[in-house]
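Form 7-S
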Amino acid sequence: MSGRSPAPGDLALVEALVNTLDLESGADALDTPEGRARLGVTEAGLPSARALRESLRATLLAHAGHPPHREVTPLDDLLAGAPLRVAVDPADGSATLAPVDAAPLVSRVAAAVATALVEGTWTRLKACEDDACHWAYYDRSPAGRGRWCSMQVCGARAKMRRYRAKDR
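Output:
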């Protein structure tokens, strides 16, 4: 929904996964082979990818101060089995957290979340407060108080609803 630029670094993967489902239209990119291929999801891995997506959405709603959109498996339960390792570059000694096997989506998401925690960017990834949207976006506002994925769409709708309710 959003015209915002993607989240920084590996958080773009998390944002892309959450945004595979358009709640307003019901279109799910994971229903197509192309949509699954973009994220490295196999047909067999589809149920776990969807569970991960909705758990991430609930967490991103919490980042924005909102309750979960529905009952989901807690994100920490889903990420608990993701094997990660510390990868050290022999050339300069820099270290990063990386999935043991880069193929599983859950391992790549776990590494992205861990890196974002260290960088202090994790809580800036949020879900739009509009119940018909809940699109993931990276909040670049100075105070970190963004509420909508798009001020022109979801923000305008919310302000119009408030205005109309006040007129009644």
